[in-house]
Design brief:
2 copies of one chain form a homodimer. Chain A has 20 helices and 31 strands. With 768 residues, the first copy, chain A, is of the alpha+beta class. Chain A is 32% helix and 25% strand. In chain A, the strands form 8 sheets. In chain A, strands 1-9-10-11-12-19-16-15-14 form a 9-stranded antiparallel sheet, covered by helices on one side. In chain A, strands 8-7-13-18-17 form a 5-stranded antiparallel sheet, with no helix packed on it. In chain A, strands 20-26-27-28-31 form a 5-stranded antiparallel sheet. At the A-B interface, β21, α14 and α15 of A face β21, α14 and α15 of B.
Chain lengths: 768, 768
Amino acid sequence: MAKVADRYLEVDPWSVVENGFSVERSRVSESIFSLSNEYMGVRGYFDEGYSGERLVGSYLNGVYTEAPIPQPNIYKGVANKTRFMVNTLDWLYTRISIDREQLDFAKCNIKDFMRKLDLKNGTVSREFVWTTSSGKSLKLTFIRFLSMVDSNLGCQRIVLEPVDFSGRVDVQSGLDFTPIHVSEKKNFWECPKKGRENGITAIIGKAEKSGHQVFSGFKLCSDSIADTRLVEEEKYIGLEFSIEVKQGTKASFDKMVVNYADKNSNTDTAKVWESGMNLAGKLTAMSFEDALSKHTAYWTDVWNNLDITIEGDPENQQGIRFCIFQLHQTYHGFDASNNVGAKGLTGEAYSGHTFWDTETYCLPFYIFNNPAAARKLLEYRYKTLPQALDWAKEQDCKGACYPMSTIDGTESCGVWWHGNLEIHVSGAISYGIWHYVKLTGDTEFLYSQGVEMLLQVSRFFASRGNWSPDGKFGFYGVMGPDEFHTFVNNNCYTNVLAKKMFEYTLEVVEEMKKTAPGKFEDVSGRISLDSKELDGWKSMAQSMIIPCDEKTGIYEQHDGYFMLPHLDIHSIPVEEFPLYHHWTLPRIYRYDMIKQPDVLLFMFFFSQDYSMVGKLKNYEYYEPRCIHESSLSPSVHSILAAELGKHDEAYNFFGFATRLDLDNYNRNTGEGLHTTSIAAAWMNIVYGFGGMRTDGGKLIFSPSIPEKWKSFSFRILYNNAVLSVTVDKDNAVFRTISGPSIEAVIFGRGYSIDSNGINIPLPADRKQ
Amino acid sequence: MAKVADRYLEVDPWSVVENGFSVERSRVSESIFSLSNEYMGVRGYFDEGYSGERLVGSYLNGVYTEAPIPQPNIYKGVANKTRFMVNTLDWLYTRISIDREQLDFAKCNIKDFMRKLDLKNGTVSREFVWTTSSGKSLKLTFIRFLSMVDSNLGCQRIVLEPVDFSGRVDVQSGLDFTPIHVSEKKNFWECPKKGRENGITAIIGKAEKSGHQVFSGFKLCSDSIADTRLVEEEKYIGLEFSIEVKQGTKASFDKMVVNYADKNSNTDTAKVWESGMNLAGKLTAMSFEDALSKHTAYWTDVWNNLDITIEGDPENQQGIRFCIFQLHQTYHGFDASNNVGAKGLTGEAYSGHTFWDTETYCLPFYIFNNPAAARKLLEYRYKTLPQALDWAKEQDCKGACYPMSTIDGTESCGVWWHGNLEIHVSGAISYGIWHYVKLTGDTEFLYSQGVEMLLQVSRFFASRGNWSPDGKFGFYGVMGPDEFHTFVNNNCYTNVLAKKMFEYTLEVVEEMKKTAPGKFEDVSGRISLDSKELDGWKSMAQSMIIPCDEKTGIYEQHDGYFMLPHLDIHSIPVEEFPLYHHWTLPRIYRYDMIKQPDVLLFMFFFSQDYSMVGKLKNYEYYEPRCIHESSLSPSVHSILAAELGKHDEAYNFFGFATRLDLDNYNRNTGEGLHTTSIAAAWMNIVYGFGGMRTDGGKLIFSPSIPEKWKSFSFRILYNNAVLSVTVDKDNAVFRTISGPSIEAVIFGRGYSIDSNGINIPLPADRKQ
């Protein structure tokens, strides 16, 4: 695979540091130094403007517009419009001039550049010295953060420190709705209201099509500013002012910004203005320091409780902390209308869309780090159940068909053979419910929301599936997670998932009938559930086709897969990757080459259902056929390899998991971070080297340690306890940091873990 | 199936007559009364204009423009632009006024309307009486034809006969380039030159994108016209004049029009003008009568030699003559740059594109009616071989991949999963060559052009196919003619065709090495043929996967077809047809329901390779699964049913073959005629009831007669002889009308047929 590190940033355990400015690397750094707080996100672009290539990306979660999907033909049930997260306003907008020379990295004389993402407190700072053509040198420091506590609040501090002069610096600071949405080459905003009230300068932008309104208002705090002048343009409002700086003295000003989105297309602009102003009045009353201290406290709590340490591997130490940081800042359960986009809030690519990655890759992280957020992610699916019901109907089906990619619950996948065929997505929603409820015991959620989704997904599967001529049940004309095979029958992953979820749904029904009959009556009445449907699902589950060669024990990825022409994937020249750009679709689709491993994925999800021998055979069969063109693929291989004692392979597949973006392995980090792949890195350590499995009755562990590492540790929240696991070359130590004791199975033996800890020697085959 | 006759036109053996004008039926009649002569075609629209709904369709064969194909995504090797036959000028343009009231069927008082297509002489005439609001009644007769002899020539005669007045009639007659291409809602023409020279009024239109230029010039001939005034507009040129009519006397004027297309985008307009004017000078020197008499002689010859008669079934008698007429007028081998579009030259639908229907459905008609035209159709493929070589390369393949749908040899199919997966199209080209050469013995064509196509198609198949893990050869990720199953592996039809064509190619190579080594050296040098390739093709043919259940002898349409869920096609409500409009694609694709019969098709093409028992079993298996959503499908069933002695079924499937358009069965004749389906009607009689098979060493016949028919007869050109076959309830009579005697196998016994004729009693099982 054509993936090699592009090591550029400083390796440091608690920060990401860029020394010196690189024009070529600028877009990548914008992504790396992105900040977000679930409510909003902003790329690490330069506050003061930059006439070089950049992506002024600033997003509010769930704020979208829409565009038609070009289609060569009109077919029934094919999505014809896509809704996508639209680039909003540049609220960091600043312009700085001295002697009429405007600060611009593309044109000015800059030295001593340093940019830093501080993982401990979630700030991005940047400092450099600017020497003007008039010969004046000014040191500037920019600091920004998006409050993890007050999620409407973004803070910017700019410090000016003249090195060799005293004099005037001219500044503009404003709110700018003119940035374009780059992929659509268009600005989607009109600004129906702007103005200054009670010291707050504010503007409202209204998005095309959706009618979503974004209020943004700011207050400047500084001892150095005397007079300000209000400047208004069509899509801009700001203040102009001057600062008299003195050599050897720092002058600074803080911009406290409140962004507030109203996603109801009918709200009166005056009402949005009022709500925005109220919020702004409250939040900008805080000082920068106070806001930062609340924000820092949030991060301190995160790191105290849920850090991962790796001794002996500083690159991965930094990498995994960067991942953990991204996951927390992208989503922490602030609002069930939000979800995790494939690139978080760090770029336009993938349109801010949520995929099934949320339930399969991200949810485990949240279950074990922020269970309330995990629930919120599932509540998002409940909130969008009406759209899933509609989408199923459009597919000539019943129940709920969850979208392949979406920002608001409507199918927005532009490529119909993905959007319409990847029915496993709905199974992933049920799987997420199963996994969450199993690990949290949250029957309140299950009985009030989860069960309804389970029933509607089962209904969908029942209507989408068919009985084969020999009386078995399966799914025809589908695509599995492995998107290198389209229009297949009986994708093994899809069928296993549907069978398991039929069974789980029926289990929940039985349980509810006994323990919560009223609630069951409620839901079954609401959705007009017929007991015949339940009988049907039972026999579908029992008769489900699970393609498998009984002689070898190898699962067949789909009907006929074993008879596909074989391709030696190592024969593909490096320059032909990514294949989608270099090969025609029929060429990609006609071999046994897979993009990501469907069979290994379900053997990981339902690990207890399969023997080690079975996993080994399937791993050894599928691994050489997998091209990993999905960034989610290597981690699954690493996790399985670790379980199977293939320690070298496990470490190799872990390779770029934590540093996919830091080292720009895929050469596309400039478009935004691979946020859902970041979740896979966490899983790779906890489920891979930690050997955790969560599909049994109790937590299961079977840790191992890569040769390079001296030790590693991770912590998880489980059953109101914080469990710490530390593994070194000799021992694995399990201890609760807080909360009740935890029952777990370690290397096949049951233990009760409490704050005293248990020290278990690593078996010889679990280390290298 | 939701197909019922819409019987509207008069049933007559030699004409199609419409009595009375129907607004609702107007678009359908425009199609039915279309005329063409291969070089050009014109719909039966009203010469004098009509403010109601109409499609002023006037086409020149192969004159196209292009438009981008909307795609949701850019994939390698997917066609991104489509070239389509563009609507050209209205050269019949006429406007007629009396007392400032303009003749318009939508507004005027019209009675005694009659429109007639005369099949004997290929004219369309129309007469009616117009009573003006000023109370004057004028009888008008319009006659038009497109010369089958001088293919640039179109003739229009308009006869005015005042019933109750004498006075002035104002007329405009011109050439109008303003009609829009309706499906694109756009006019694609600019007119770089127009004017009047030597009594010829002319204009040139230049098409967008292609730069094709169309010259049109006309001369008016009349004793009744005194002065004319030239009128020029941006895209129009014409003459205005008045005719003084006298009660009881006919006045008339003839418009002799020459259309001439230059399809070289670089030709100077002045040069086109000169060529056009030269042609116009020559052809318009002819009188209307002379031109008509040459034209009529052409048709007389056609009907004398190649008529089909059906006694006892006037509807089908009329229907089959309509079909024969359409095939001759659409294409008769005038120019190898032309081909047969799915709708001929009668409408915009299917974009004037040629499909594989040409080689599989139309070619047999031409082989047995106009072998020189058959050769020209294959020469068209040779002329477009360079485009097929390019298209293969774009598909990451070698050799020649012929396009799914095209006007100029480039792939213009807007739906990539058809365009890129239906590789059987290339096999159909080779099949056409095989069939043509087998029946005509034209080795001159084979050795100079055919063999090169055969070799390049074999090369394509070799590169597109793959070896399966068990050492067999097949085609993966394809679509067969049955478009209800996409992305299948080893489509049986495709594999059979490829195997046969590999074998035929190798046979031709062996034969050429012996009998024409120089020519073989030529071609193999030109295309750098390697003898290893030939060895490869041999082993591919030998190892070709032909999916078949050996126990039952039923061929499996593709890998896994037998295990698809069964759908009772009779359970589909009538109002859900056509399925493409009412069902989602994954719903259409996931059953054993087929659109048209792949297996039966190859059992028909290569009839001698299969036993009657084999055909019977496969017919009985596939027939109930076929929904006939292709208009080419029923005829294949009818032909097989006739062979198998299922006479009722044979007649039922023949049902709407000859009258598909006359009775508007598909409710879309308004878009144009189903020209390639019309060819299937001819095959249905000759191969079906005539029981002819042409894949053996000699012609084979096994006639049968439908219960309703008293007798039927058909004639074919074969080996320079005209063979007449007449079948009644008791006997089948075979006789040559001209030329040498013909060897044939009739009911399994060999005969030599000459002008004395052979009378063979029909076996009991060949009649009802």
